[in-house]
Amino acid sequence: MLKVSNITKYYDELKAVDNLTFEVKEGEIFGLLGVNGAGKTTTFRLIMGLIEPNEGIITLDDKKIDYNVTDKIGFLTEERSLLTKMSIKEQALFYGRLKGMNKKDILNKLDNLLKKFYKNEKDFNLEEFKKKKIKELSKGNQQKIQFIIAILNDPKLLILDEPFSGLDPFNIELFKEEINRLSKQGSIIIFSSHRMEHVELFCEKILVIAKGKALLEGYLDEIKENFQKKNIIVNGDIDIEEIKNIEGVISVNKQGMDYEIKIENKNINDKVFKKVKNYKNITKYILQSPSLNEIFIEKVGEYYEG
Q1: 7 neighbors 180 (Cβ within 8 angstroms)
Q2: Which of 23, 24, 152, 212 could form a disulfide with 18 if both were Cys (CB 3.0 to 4.6 A apart)?
Q3: Residues 153-207 pLDDT 10s
Q4: What is the side-by-side strand order in the sheet with 188-192?
Q5: Structural contact between residues 43 and 20, judged by C-beta atoms closer than 8 angstroms
């Protein structure tokens, strides 16, 4: 288990992280979210032992994270961190050795992962591909190699910061498969993205931070259920102005073939339903919780500085 306990970090007078506490169990995929400048990068650096907190402690399996523990950690950064003049093979050997792996295991794992990530590409030549320099690769292929390097050592703790950057939908699916595989084998995974739909794909628990402080934390299903505002999805012929005039209705918007009716709370649903049931050609009526993106915008909006 990863335990982050009452962590505070200052940069001179700036408090970048403010008394953060959270836990991530084996096999969990935990979402750490926030706008730019919220303190996520500092939190990642603290977890990896790259910088020390001014207050608090971080442990992995009850051990303070230091150079005896970092071999068990994998990290995919938002910015490209690959050495562009190295070949893929050289890059893997360099990072694998830093993680305490031997050459044979590094090359075997590299080959297995490359075959997995390029299994559907025509005319893929494994040996030739490994000789390519990082700077010769497309943005998407660089991201794939960066991910492969991050998981080369089957990390106990894996931190993923915007892992799907530059990827097409097909390759996102390949990443999803591997992330879920690592989770099932017991890896602790911290997932960060500005794309809330990606967070909803994976994360059972989330923590939203703003200006270094915890703003929203818990199980995603419970957060969405407890959020007061709800959405009603309707398909059919409705009187938009009549619905808008119902007390408690926030807005009515066309969404493709449907209408999305935003309401202040689920109690307003009865009022809307009484109106809608009298309309003709109604083929859909669904009450649902808002998306994580909607919740994030509302909760973090007052802290956003552009």
Answers
A1: no
A2: 212
A3: 999 999 999 898 888 888 888 999 999 999 999 999 999 988 898 898 889 999 9
A4: 73-76, 157-161, 188-192, 29-33, 205-210, 213-219
A5: yes
Please give the structure tokens belonging to residue 73: 């950690």
CB 31 within 8 Å of CB 191: yes
CA separation for the pair 8, 3 (Å, rounded): 14
The span from the CA of 105 to the CA of 89, in Å, is 13
In the chain, the amino acid numbered 167 is L
Computed from CA positions of residues 220, 226, 229, 230, in that sequence, does the dihedral angle turn out positive or negative? positive
Task: List the structure tokens of 294.
Answer: 């909607």
Asked if residue 158 lies in contact with residue 187, where contact means CB atoms within 8 angstroms, the answer is: yes
Helix-strand-coil percent breakdown of the chain, rounded to 5? 40, 30, 35
**Predicted structure pTM score:** 0.87
